[in-house]
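Progress note, sequence design subtask.
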């Protein structure tokens, strides 16, 4: 089996009410004002033609097979205020 390293880096403009909070495992998630939490991670997308519309899978089995290939995940958040 080969290894594939994927680094996700996003820069987003977010509403003032969003906050970073640490989880019990030391990771970070985003706390939304409505009491929900947001974690941004990989979502596999599929297409029959790379120039056409991409969609997520409708099959839980396919999604679980892809997610089972992930050995570790590390998403780091940094909140910058001006």
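Output:
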């Amino acid at each position: 089996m080969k290894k594939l390293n994927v680094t996700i880096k996003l820069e987003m403009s977010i509403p003032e009410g969003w906050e970073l909070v640490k989880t019990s495992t030391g990771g970070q998630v985003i706390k939304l004002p409505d009491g929900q939490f947001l974690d941004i991670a990989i979502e596999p997308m599929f297409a029959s033609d790379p120039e056409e519309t991409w969609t997520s899978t409708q099959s839980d089995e396919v999604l679980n097979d892809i997610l089972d290939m992930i050995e570790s995940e590390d998403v780091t958040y940094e909140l910058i205020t001006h």
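The chain has a mean pLDDT of 87. Work on this subtask will continue into the next period as scheduled.
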